Amino acid sequence: MATRKAASHNSGELRLRPLRRAALPAATRALARFLIGKYVVHDVPQGRLCGRIVETEAYPPGDAAGHAYIGETRRNRALFLRRGHAYVYFAYGSSYLLNVSSESRGVGAGVLIRALEPRAGIAEMERRRGSKRLRDLTRGPGRLAEALGVDLRQNGVDLCGHGTLRLASDGRKPGAIGRSVRIGITKDAHRLLRFYERGNPYVSGSRRLNH
DNA sequence: AGTGCGATTGACT
DNA sequence: GTCAATCGCACTA
After folding, report:
1. How high is the pLDDT of residue A65?
2. Which nucleotide is nearest to A73 (CA to C1')?
3. Residue A79 sits in a domain of what CATH number?
4. N- or C-end of chain A: fewer Cβ atoms within 10 A?
5. Quick one: which of A45, A40, A175, A56 has its CA closest to A120?
6. How far apart are the C-alpha atoms of A154 and A70, rounded to whole Å?
7. Is A142 helix (H, G, I), strand (E, B) or coil?
8. Residue A142, in any domain of the structure
C-alpha cells in the first residue's frame, strides 16, 4: 500500500497528455475549477519543470477586479486572446504572475494560477528560487512563476499548442475542491472565485480561507 | 513629467 | 500575525 501511495503522489512515473483547447470549459469560472488537478509544464534547457495546479482564481468578463476591466491595453492584451493563452504580467516590482485567458477572442478574462504542487524538475526549480523550503517552492503565484522560469517572454503564448510552456492532464480527478474569496484584491472582494484542492499543503492563503 | 496604485513576497514581532 | 520594498502601468496635464 505504501508503494501505491508513492506512485500516485511522487513524480516518478508522470504520464501527461496535452490539454487541447476543446477540452477547456468555455467560461472563466468553469475553467478555474477545471484547472485544479491539471498541470503546467515548462521545458527549459535544464530539463522539464512541471507542477500540478492546486489553486486558481477566476477573473470573469466585466469583473471590476480584473485587469481586462479597463479595456484592452498593451499590458493586458493577452487576456483578450481566445481561451488557453498565457497572460503574464509583472506585479509589485518583484513578481511575474501567470494567467490563462478564458473566453472568446476580444472578450477579456482570465484565470490566475496561484499555486502548484511541484512534480518534476524540483532541483532546477529550487535553484531558480534560491532553494527555500520545498513547501514554499511553488506556493503563491509569484513563486511558481519564478520556479518555472515564466516571465514576460511567455506573455501571449498558446498554452494548448506545441510551445515549451503548456497545460497538461494526468487523466485523474482532483480531490475535493474548496472555494473562497480571492486574495489581495479590493474590488468585488466578496465573490467566491478562488478555487483550491482541500487539504493540499501547497495551497496558499490563510487557514481561514482554506477551510 | 508626475502621480497613485497594486491579482506579492520575505523579513520580522 | 504585521509591514514595507519595489517598479511598471495607466492616467492626468
Report:
1. 97
2. C10
3. 3.10.300.10
4. N
5. A40
6. 22
7. helix
8. yes
Q: Are A188 and A64 in contact (CB under 8 A)?
A: yes
Radius of gyration of chain A (CA): 16
Domain extent at residue A132: 4-197
Residue A208 lies in a domain: no
Identify the H or E element spanning A208.
none
Round and report the angstrom distance from CA (A136) to C1' (C1).
18
Query: Which nucleotides of strand B lie within 7 A of protein CB?
Result: 6-10
pLDDT digits (tens, 9 = 90+) for A116-175: 999 999 999 999 999 879 999 999 999 999 999 999 999 999 999 999 999 999 999 999
Task: Reduce the DSSP state of residue A210 to 3 states and report it.
Answer: helix
Q: What are residue A100's DSSP bridge partners?
A: A86, A111
